[in-house]
Amino acid sequence: MDYAESKPSQVRELIRNGIIDGPTTGMCNGYAQGNLVILPEELSWDLLLFCQRNPRACPLLEVSDAGSRSFPQTAKGSDITKDIPRYRIYENGICTGESTNISSRFEEYQKTKGRLISFLIGCSFSFEAELLEADIPVRQIEEGVNVPMYNTNIPCISAGVFSGTMVVSMRPIPHSKVPMAVAVTAAMPKVHGAPIHIGYPEFIGIENIKEPDYGDPVTIKEGEVPVFWPCGVTPQAVLMNSRPSFAMTHAPGHMFITDVKNTILKYS
Amino acid sequence: MDYAESKPSQVRELIRNGIIDGPTTGMCNGYAQGNLVILPEELSWDLLLFCQRNPRACPLLEVSDAGSRSFPQTAKGSDITKDIPRYRIYENGICTGESTNISSRFEEYQKTKGRLISFLIGCSFSFEAELLEADIPVRQIEEGVNVPMYNTNIPCISAGVFSGTMVVSMRPIPHSKVPMAVAVTAAMPKVHGAPIHIGYPEFIGIENIKEPDYGDPVTIKEGEVPVFWPCGVTPQAVLMNSRPSFAMTHAPGHMFITDVKNTILKYS
C-alpha cells in the first residue's frame, strides 16, 4: 500500500491513529505537502519575516492563529499536533525528543508559558507526482527511503534573530531530462519551484553527496545529474541556530498532507 | 517625457526632488512597482499575516526591519519616506493629510511613540509593460489618468484585527485579447497575477463602473470587456476598517518603483 491515490483526509486519519508512521514521500498524488514549525508567539514575527524574505526555501502555505491547533485554509478538520507521522521537540535549540503525537506538549506549553503559532511551509514532495507524470524518475520513491537533504553554503536573508544557510533536497535526474525537471517544478513556486542548483554539489558547499545531513542516501546512476531544490527543512536549521527556548517541528521527510491540490496552488 | 524607459533610481531621484509628483503608471517599463503601508510595530504581525493569507491582493515584495526607512532587497539606497510621489497620513483610520515627503512625520512618530514597519506590496502597474508588448492596450496610460479602482464584495481572509473585502483595478480589454491578458498576467503572481474577475462588474459588487472608488474613470470602447485585477489598495482599505491609531501609505496610483525586474520576480 503506497497511498499514492489516497485522499489526504484519509491518510491524515491513518497517521493520527498510528497506522502510518513513516515518511510521506509518494503519498496523496496531486496534493501539496507541508513542513511544520511551531514556535512561541514572541518569536513568530521574526520567522514570518524570514519566510517572506526567503520564499524559495520557505514558501508559506498557512500560518495559524495564535494558540490554534488547526490550519483551516489548507486542511479543514485537521489537528496540527496529531496529523504528522513524526515530530521533533526542541528545547534551547537541542532536539530533546521525537514523538508521533505532540498534543499534550502543545497544551502544556500553552497552559504554563504562552501561546504557540504554527507555520506550514511548502514541501518538494508535492511536485514529485508531476515529475513522475513527465516520466522523470524520483529515486527515493523507487528505493523506498527518505529524500536526501544537505546543508549548503547558500546564504539566506536574515530576519531578526534568524539567519543561516539553505538546506536542499536532492534528486538524481537523467541528464536529458534535467531541463524538463526544471520547467515542471518552476511552475510550482509554492512548493519550492525550480532547482536552486544543478550538477556540482561542491559549488554549494556539499562535500560528500553520499552522506546527506538529513534523510537517506540514494543511488546516482551513470548518466544522471544531481539536482538540488530548496528544502523546507531550512527554517528548522535556521531556527536551531538561534537556540529558541522551545520549538516543535515535523521530523524531516514526515510531512503534513494538505487538502490543497497542487494545480490550484499554482494559481493562488 | 513619459519615463517609460527611465531607470528606477533616476525616477526615484526625480520624485525625491519634487520633479515628478503624479501617478507612476507607465514609468520604468520592466521594473516592479509597489504599494506602501507603514504601520506601528504592534499592528505589524496582523498585517503580515493578512498579506500571507491574501496573496492575490497583497503579494509582499519586502518588509522593512523595524524602525528602518529602507528596502535593501528591492531598492538599495532608497528612502521609503521620500521616494513616492504622494503619501497619505491616517490617524484613527481617517485620512488627515497628503504629503510628498513624510520623513519628518516618520521620525517624529518614532521619537515619541515607537517603531514603525514598512510593507511593500506588488502593484499591477508592473505588468502593464508586458500587456503593451503583447499589443494589449492599457487605457489609463493612453488617456493619461490614474487607473480606476473599485471596492468589491469579494471577501478577504481575516487576520487579527484586519478584515474586509478586496479592492480591484480595472482595465478595459478588447474581447479577443482577454485570454492573452489572463495568460500574460498569470505569469506574474508577485504583482497580482491573473485577473480576479472578467466581464460582469455587478457579480463582484460594483454598481457603477463609471464611478471608481479610487483613481479616475476610463473609456470602455465597443467590443471591450472590463477586466478586474486584485489591487494593492486592498490592505489600505482593510487597514482603515480597523481604525489604527496611525498609518501612512502611498496615495493610490502613486507607487514605489523598485530596482527589481519583473522577469526576475517571476522566478523568485
UniProtKB/TrEMBL annotation, chains A, B:
Domain of life: Bacteria
InterPro entries in UniProt: D-Glu_cyclase, Putative_hydro-lyase, UPF0317
GO terms of molecular function: D-glutamate cyclase activity
Catalytic activity, EC: 4.2.1.-
First-tier enzyme category under EC: lyase
An annotated GO BP: glutamate metabolic process
Alphabetized UniProt keyword annotations: Lyase
Keyword Protein transport recorded: no
Keyword hit for Lyase: yes
Family: Belongs to the D-glutamate cyclase family.
Name of the featured protein: Putative hydro-lyase BET01_05560
Organism: Lacrimispora algidixylanolytica
